[in-house]
Design goal:
Layout lengths: L1 H13 L3 H17 L1 H5 L2 E3 L11 H9 L3 E8 L4 E6 L7 E3 L5 E3 L14 E2 L5 E2 L5 E2 L6 H10 L2
Parallel strand pairs: 1-2, 1-6
Antiparallel strand pairs: 2-3, 4-5, 7-8
């Protein structure tokens, strides 16, 4: 049942036109930038969008211009692990990583300690009314979330 629902939601999202995605990504970006927790944070980790997910490049560019440290995950597929790396430049500082998803270049000087993350913005296929998320198929985010939760 979960697999069928995931497939339907992804299909629905993938059928949205670029104007719909752009307009709603802009609204989400504006909403996030207006939030106190984002304004107060110094280090924000988020995802680099894939397919028809909410577009994040504009948000990343704005956060960097606000002198925030912005990170995205690098996926270590064999270890089933996400490692936060600082995004220094969207044009030259990004590679195509595991699963064809964009990720920061693995420059050791840009690797961030998980404890440095103030805010984590997590992608999902869908959320329910209780804020539980339906992930893609492979989810390495759970371990990262569990690590962050133990620090609270």
């Amino acid at each position: 049942m979960k697999k069928d629902f995931r497939k339907k939601v992804i299909e629905y999202r993938n059928n949205k036109d670029t104007d719909f995605i752009s307009t709603n990504s802009q609204k989400i970006t504006e909403k996030l930038l207006s939030m106190k927790c984002i304004k107060d944070a110094s280090t924000i980790m988020l995802y680099l969008d894939f397919n028809n997910e909410v577009k994040t490049d504009q948000l990343i560019t704005k956060l960097i211009s606000l002198r925030k440290t912005v990170a995205a995950p690098v996926t270590l597929k064999n270890e089933r692990k996400l490692i936060p790396f600082k995004i220094t430049n969207l044009k030259d500082g990004i590679n195509i990583g595991a699963y064809g998803i964009r990720e920061p270049k693995k420059d050791p000087s840009n690797e961030l300690n998980v404890e440095a993350i103030d805010i984590l913005i997590v992608p999902a296929v869908a959320y329910d009314k209780d804020c539980y998320r339906l992930d893609m198929v492979v989810d390495f985010t759970i371990d990262l979330l569990n690590t962050l939760e133990t620090m609270l």
